[in-house]
Amino acid sequence: MEDLSCQELVELVTDYLEGALPAEERARFDAHLAECPGCDHYLEQMRATIRLTAATADIESRPEVSGLLEAFRDWKVRRGQDRS
Ligand SMILES: [Zn+2]
After folding, report:
1. How far is the CA of 42 from the centre of ligand 1 (A)?
2. Ligand 1 mean position to 39 CA, how many Å?
3. How far is the CA of 32 from the centre of ligand 1 (A)?
4. How confident is the model at residue 1, as a pLDDT?
5. Residue 43 C-alpha to ligand 1 middle, in angstroms?
6. Higher-confidence residue: 28 or 66?
7. pTM higher than 0.85, yes or no?
8. Are residues 40 and 33 in contact, defined by beta-carbon separation less than 8 angstroms?
9. 5 CA to middle of ligand 1, Å?
């Protein structure tokens, strides 16, 4: 079984986090993580980013917040128009 390269790991990270990797690929992924601190750290960052994105999506789906976000977007658009 060939070792996974860092490049391959980066390409597979989304599938890994979604649990979409076949068992064999996942095993290679885990083996690489165990001996590559750089990729281990990278994975942690990806996890944190995904948590943050999920939290933000959750907030945006709340009506009172999405109303505010829309108002903010309108405000930005209007400022853009004023300048032209
Ligand atoms: Zn690596």
Report:
1. 9
2. 4
3. 6
4. 60
5. 10
6. 28
7. no
8. yes
9. 6
